[in-house]
Amino acid sequence: MPILSWFGRRPEMEEFMTAEYGEFPRRDQNRGDSGRRGLLAGAAGVLMTISLAGSMSHVADAANEGGALRLVALGDSLTAGYGLPADAALPVQLQRRLEARGHKVVIVNAGVSGDTASGGLERLDWSIAADAEGAIVALGANDALRGIDPAVTRKALDAILSRLRAKGLEVLLAGMLAPRNLGEAYARAFDAIYPDLARQHGVEFYPFLLEGVVGVPRFNLNDGIHPTAEGVGLIADRMLPAVERLLAKVEAKRAGH
């Protein structure tokens, strides 16, 4: 069940949403991209992520001497690890699980809190290192929360995937579902973006990033939106097979297959 439909229209949830993402969307409001409110809300996330990505690039340099595969996780607060220690963020938890299964891999955290798909496109060039071999794209949650026109989200994600593929990267696209309180037509148009683009670009696909986590209090922070460290761990566990398929493609490309 998608994000906002967990709660109906609870006033305390709308207060949080307004503070974090800007004015809360209603069904009769314009659903176009209303600007950079999400990125302004995520300014601290930008600084945190730049610092983390920089520190992890040094880890990547050292690890790559031993042939580690190099991935980048491009996302929003669900990737960045909003409200969590840096070592509890999704890219770190995924990397630990992969290493425990014998994979040599480094996953750089390129998550920015508050980012939309359009924001991810704007920062794509400086978010993806030149030596990256694969990417996990997990954007669109803020688009849905703000009621942005699905056509805008689709166009941005399409461009991201096109540019990543043009760079020669293998890609895993993580899907998102729209809040049902924005209407059936909106949800239908938004939900279709991810499977459509995964097929179109021939990339690996994980249907719903928050599968198994939404609506379960122990897996979410008090805001009811962002996962706890345990919730992120569950996401990592569920995503692991898809990420291993991504790694297999990266390894095959390295081997020249």
From TrEMBL:
UniProt source species: Blastochloris viridis (Rhodopseudomonas viridis)
Protein name: Arylesterase
SUPFAM superfamilies cross-referenced by the UniProt entry: SGNH hydrolase
A molecular-function term among this protein's GO annotations: phosphatidylcholine lysophospholipase activity
Entry-linked CDD domains: Lysophospholipase_L1_like
Entries under PANTHER family matching the protein: THIOESTERASE 1/PROTEASE 1/LYSOPHOSPHOLIPASE L1 (PTHR30383), THIOESTERASE 1_PROTEASE 1_LYSOPHOSPHOLIPASE L1 (PTHR30383:SF24)
Domain spans labelled SGNH hydrolase-type esterase: 73-231
Domain of life, source organism: Bacteria
GO biological process: lipid metabolic process
Any matching Pfam family: Lipase_GDSL_2
